[in-house]
Specification:
Number of helices: 3
Radius of gyration: 14 Å
Largest sheet: 5 strands, mixed, barrel
Shape: globular
Distance between the termini: 41 Å
Helix content: 10-25%
Number of strands: 10
Order of helices and strands: EEEEHEEEHEHEE
Structural class: alpha+beta
């Protein structure tokens, strides 16, 4: 149950979304429990640190020898039909990497899809303490996202 599934990187979208391929089938995945500043959302100007988050995700996925996705216990897709997954690059959780580097905030925490929230929050706290990335701009991160 909820085993890691090895996938291939198909296409980069932004900091918290990518396309993967499994057995010849391509699907879009939204990374569980994190939110990165927007770069491609319709009607939203690119936000501060959005490009950095997007580039870092692309770099991590492009350079990984092994990419795995893992579902949690709750919904497996969102209202946009994106797979809701934890994403591992060479055994490391991409959500932890982005949070610890100040490129993502913990967000969209829903019961049954929150097994790793404490771990990701610890990594987020490291970035907060160092005031790096999104945490380097006072009042930029809000409970609803990012404000310009």
């Amino acid at each position: 149950k909820n085993k890691k599934i090895q996938v291939s990187f198909a296409k980069h979208i932004d900091g918290d979304t990518a396309r993967f391929s499994l057995n010849g089938h391509e699907f879009k995945s939204r990374f569980l429990l994190i939110d990165t500043p927007e770069t491609v959302k319709q009607g939203v100007s690119p936000q501060k640190f959005g490009k950095e988050a997007s580039n870092r995700t692309n770099e991590l996925l492009s350079n990984a020898a092994v990419i795995e996705v893992q579902f949690d216990n709750g919904d497996r897709t969102d209202r946009y039909q994106r797979a809701l997954c934890y994403v591992y690059v060479d055994g490391k959780l991409i959500q932890n990497i982005l949070a610890s580097e100040g490129l993502a905030r913990v967000a969209y925490v829903y019961r049954s899809n929150d097994s790793l929230v404490a771990e990701i929050k610890e990594n987020e706290q490291l970035a907060k303490d160092l005031e790096i990335g999104i945490w380097s701009i006072e009042h930029y991160v809000t409970k609803n996202g990012f404000q310009e």
